[in-house]
Amino acid sequence: MSKASRPADTETGLFFRRWLANPRKVGAIIPSSYALAQLVASHIRRGADEYVLELGAGTGAITRALIDAGLPADRLILVELDPKMSAVLADRFPELRIITGDATKLPQILPKEVQGHIATVVSGIPMIGMPREFHQAIVDACFAVTSPGGQILQYTYSPLSPLPRKELGITGKLMGWAANNLPPAAVWRYSRVEVSA
């Protein structure tokens, strides 16, 4: 059976198996719903020459919505830690730049020419229950590579902010809920706190 003709539930099966293998690194047992993906896509901000970076792209549910919303393929970069998930992404989206690597090391793994030109980081990395040091490492890595005024869009399955805003020196706003996602999911927007001169 060719890759293109695999049953639809193969994606969900892979997602579930990767969750079983490491629940702390895979935040849900099934891929995100298209409703959540569309909610995320609706809050993307990007100038004509800027990029969108997706962290923890999984099997590409959010990726597909970003492309369907009109984001050019050459302006979307994916970072996925799990090599098996990366292989699925490469199969589904051969036109995209996909990096298998650690999102806490974005300045080391992203091409130099895109650093400082990323307007929005979309994060599907699970944050609830992760240590503060991990939160700090992700936030610092993201804002090290974004454009001035860049944002992080984080989706989460908690009704509360998944990132401790004050401690991390960021502002955050709940942008909306995808109630029919399983489980229901929220999208938060984070920015750096502006420091007065």
In the CATH hierarchy, the third-tier topology is known as Rossmann fold
Please state how the strands of the largest beta sheet are arranged side by side.
3-2-1-4-5-7-6
**What top-tier CATH class fits best?**
Alpha Beta
Strand content: 15-25%
Q: Any idea what the CATH superfamily is called?
A: Vaccinia Virus protein VP39
Order of helices and strands: HHEHEHEHEHEHEE
The secondary-structure class comes to: alpha/beta
Q: How many H/I helices?
A: 7
Helicity range: 25-40%
What number of structural domains do the residues give? 1
Over the alpha carbons, how many angstroms does the gyration radius reach? 16 Å
Return residue spans where pLDDT drops below 50 for at least 5 consecutive residues.
1-9, 23-30
Which word captures the global form?
globular
* Main beta-sheet annotation: 7 strands, mixed
Number of E-state strands: 7
